[in-house]
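User: Hello, can you help with two protein structures?

Assistant: Certainly.
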Amino acid sequence: MATLGYATVGSNDLARAKAFYDALLEVAGLEPLFEHPSGGRVYGRDGAFVFGVLGPYNREPATAGNGTMIGFRCDSRAEVDSIHAKAIALGGRDEGAPGFRAPSFYMSYFRDPDGNKLCAYWVG
């Protein structure tokens, strides 16, 4: 069975985006793995690629996908809270404060400075 291997978002300001994701993903236990040829950066854990912020391959402007969202599974409700707070502190935009969305799904939603929608969630 296939599972999601990694996700990427595009940015028109890679310096700003890398600063945002360096600080945000550190809270999630992800670290920079390498610089991407587009000027972006790839992040992961234990050497495995999980997420990247890139310049678009076609060299057209990056846009946030309408209806596109990337979720980061967290180990606790506290981690969800921490990631959401960090995203807002870094200039992200709140799209739904941390809380239960279903009996066992604790989730928060936010957008990065380029408008990409992200979710931090915990299932317990």
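That covers the first. Now for the second protein you mentioned:
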Amino acid sequence: MGRMEIITGRERRRRWSDEDKLRILEEASAPQTSAAAVARRHDLLPQQIYTWRRQFRVIEQAGDESVSFLPVGLIEEEDIARRRKARGRRSGRIEVKLVNGRALCIDADIDDDILSRLIRVVEEA
């Protein structure tokens, strides 16, 4: 008589090494192959393959420390001088206390029309 193994408990829980997971993922990513077919061959649920894909994608992205650059534009000296002059006249932040007890904290160089509209909106709220 042959040996019989009886599994007791709620369910079995297998542990897969990273090498095994990567081998199965490589098999599942082959052209004309479905994750469900690979999962059946390895006695897995297809969701497990998708979970492993996400797991290794996150590890790849965390390890990717590539350098990125921001676009830079050149400003003429005249523009810099004009901006400094404009800031010299009105700079900093202003707090405007309204009749209804509310307050607006805004940049000092805000356009007058925009400030008027903001005050109206906040007072009516």
